[in-house]
Design goal:
- It is a single chain.
- α1 (about 10-25) crosses α7, α6 packs parallel to α8 (about 250-260) and α6 packs across α10 (about 300-315).
- The chain is built from twelve helices and eleven strands.
- By secondary structure, the chain is of the alpha/beta class.
- Bound molecules: nicotinamide-adenine-dinucleotide (NAD) and thymidine-5'-diphosphate.
- Thymidine-5'-diphosphate (TYD) binds next to α6 and β8.
Amino acid sequence: MKLFVTGGAGFIGSNFVLYWLCHHPDDIIVNYDALTYAGNLENIKELEGNSHHIFVRGDICDAVLVEQSMKACDMVVHFAAESHVDRSIMDPSAFVKTNVLGTQVLLDAAKKIGVQRFHHVSTDEVFGSLDLGSSEKFNESTSYSPHSPYSASKAGSDHLVRAYADTYGLPITITNCSNNYGPYQFPEKLFGLAITNILEEKKVPVYTPGNQVRDWLFVEDHCRAIELVLLKGKVGETYCVGGLTKDVTNMEIVKMILSLMGKGEDVIELVKDRPGHDVRYAIDWTKIQKELGWEPTVILEQGLQKTVEWYTTHQEWWKNIKSGSYTTYYEKQYTQR
Ligand code: NAD
Ligand code: TYD
């Protein structure tokens, strides 16, 4: 099988490409990525010289290059996106361009080429926010109510993917997954930022009041869910993917990280909250469990340990990132808080 993977040099995309070629070594992956600030060839360095991995540097908004690169591919797995909520608040335009227009360009090419499957990797953030303390969870029937420019642009992309299925019969599947963590996550997201700041002996910013809840999933479990949906999922269906069975707040996560790293809680710095901050996400993953036999295998404590170990042993990887244009972003995001 030949897969056209977009965003395969980013966090989840690179984990997926490495996972897929390890488990399906006869397949070929065309890895199409623009290498924005979040894309990094270091993530897929171990595939250098592997003839089953073809890297194409390109923007998903470039219809000509997309169509040319997607030719003869059987399946599309679409990860490429602008993915950080705080950056979407600073400047929404790139989010609409890549996440909405870029997805439409890919859909057009997939329709023209006649791929067997277009799999769209989406987020639980399209559903909006649940009440703190409630036992409610998102599922495949939850209506959309996005609050950030990021989640609104992902919601737009989900709607387009379903519209191409309904209007043109494109064989699609969608996964709406909760927050991922693990190796190669860009250090602007909570886990990477907290762990690397601790390693650098810096403060860890927690958005006030720190009681917000996310449904954390170790990235490899997400990759396995996508694999199952590609191989056994029903065309036209959406699957919700999540990790936790009980609520854990951001403050609790940071304290768990600090305890694992043997550091005191005095490094926690409560900073101004994010505007429009969704307070709680929780996923009901019964459908993918019942229909495809998926469930998370890495519990939070294990995943945290693996992630702390990874950042501790890959300091060059994140130090290269943190010494570049990231500094400007960090100052803009946290200095006025
Ligand atoms: P990321 O920001 O780490 O990586 C995004 C990748 O897409 C980068 O390699 C970047 O270079 C590439 N890219 C961006 N714009 C592009 C463009 N115009 N053309 C081609 N490539 C482009 O993101 P991630 O965290 O790996 O997320 C991947 C996907 O999974 C996204 O669609 C995101 O919405 C979704 N998702 C993420 C999470 C999470 O917790 N990170 C959870 C659920 C769903
Ligand atoms: P993040 O990793 O940015 O993912 P998302 O906003 O897509 O859920 O943030 C996860 C949670 O952690 C979210 O509630 C915001 C919070 N957070 C902090 O408290 N401090 C930080 O420095 C960051 C980046 C996030």
